[in-house]
Specification:
Layout lengths: L1 E3 L2 E2 L5 H11 L1 E4 L5 H15 L37 H8 L2 H7 L2 H11 L4 E3 L4 E5 L24 E6 L10 E4 L3 H17 L4 H4 L17 H6 L7 E3 L7 E4 L5 E3 L10 E10 L19
Parallel strand pairs: 1-8, 2-3
Antiparallel strand pairs: 3-9, 4-11, 5-11, 6-9, 6-11, 7-8, 7-10
């Protein structure tokens, strides 16, 4: 089943915003970051990825229109299996000052503090920027974020940022309703198996160990997984706009939807994590992403 994610306006009382986050596992705040600044980073990304031929010839990188003559499977983004020759371009973008300046946007950090009540937040350097071209395999299978951050405590806040307008059929994130308790249950089962196998610590934090699924995900079949292991829960989708941010819990189960945008727009998004400076964070995420980092 599919339903709708509930938006929250910026002028909602902070107590209500916090209650929604604790109750639902997410809060989708409208219009946090100025639209022009979001489209600036979108243009930066596609200008730098243009040598792959991914963009429609003569199109504006700010629009991010996919070259319809290409095979979408060859042009999958981070989280799926991008072409080997594209990896160096993606590595350079992930380490760029332009990208990290955007992730440290003062409006975003202000909202993290407002949501959590932290005095000072720590932003993890390992931010991730992902594209999802029309017709490709979804770049993010079903997962909860703690799967990939087991080296730290499950107390961080994730921020998912659509880098451009993204309608419900445009390949944005979908969230499994009220799924935080289920995420914790699944992780506890993994932990029990790891203890039974007497796994060394470095394997226990590995999202790709022998007990895990393809690419560390729970599944890539959203419909059937929700009916079975997902306990019949509903997937929640949304019409996201540039400037929106979704904050979600380490246990909130989510996945990318398929991009079926009629105009051929490539979904671009970024995700980044924040900890309270007092908490134990995952040290593997304190360096920039690069292909082959094993996380």
């Amino acid at each position: 089943m599919v339903g709708w994610l509930k938006p929250t306006s910026k002028d909602t009382p902070v107590e209500e915003i916090r209650d929604r986050y604790l109750r639902d596992g997410y809060v989708w705040i409208k219009g946090i970051i100025p639209r022009d600044e979001v489209f600036d980073i979108r243009e930066y990304y596609f200008s730098n990825i243009a040598p792959t031929g991914m963009l429609e010839p003569s199109s504006n990188p700010r629009d991010g229109i996919f070259n319809h003559k290409l095979d979408p499977i060859i042009h999958q983004g981070l989280g799926a299996t991008p072409e080997k020759s594209h990896e160096s371009l993606l590595d350079a973008i992930h380490a760029s000052p332009e990208y990290h300046q955007f992730l440290a946007h003062p409006k975003l950090r202000e909202w993290v503090r407002r949501l959590t009540g932290w005095e000072k937040e720590v932003i993890l350097k390992r931010g991730l920027i992902r594209h999802n071209v029309p017709g490709s395999k979804c770049p993010s299978g079903i997962h909860y974020d703690q799967l990939f951050l087991r080296g730290g405590d499950p107390v961080f806040v994730s921020a998912w940022i659509p880098l451009g307008d993204c309608p419900a059929n445009g390949g944005g994130l979908m969230y499994l309703e009220k799924s935080c308790p289920l995420g914790e249950q699944i992780e506890n089962r993994y932990r029990e198996r790891q203890e039974q196998d007497d796994m060394p610590p470095e394997e226990r934090v590995n999202a790709f160990n022998v007990h895990m699924g393809e690419l560390g995900h729970l599944s890539h079949d959203a419909e059937n997984w929700a009916k079975g292991d997902g306990q019949g829960k509903t997937w929640l989708v949304a019409n996201y706009e540039a400037g929106d941010v979704v904050f979600h819990s380490p246990w909130m189960i989510h996945a990318s939807s398929r991009n079926e945008d009629a105009e051929g727009r490539i979904r671009l998004s970024s995700d980044v994590r924040f900890y309270d400076e007092k908490d134990r964070l995952d040290p593997r995420w304190t360096r920039y992403f690069f292909y082959g980092d094993g996380i």
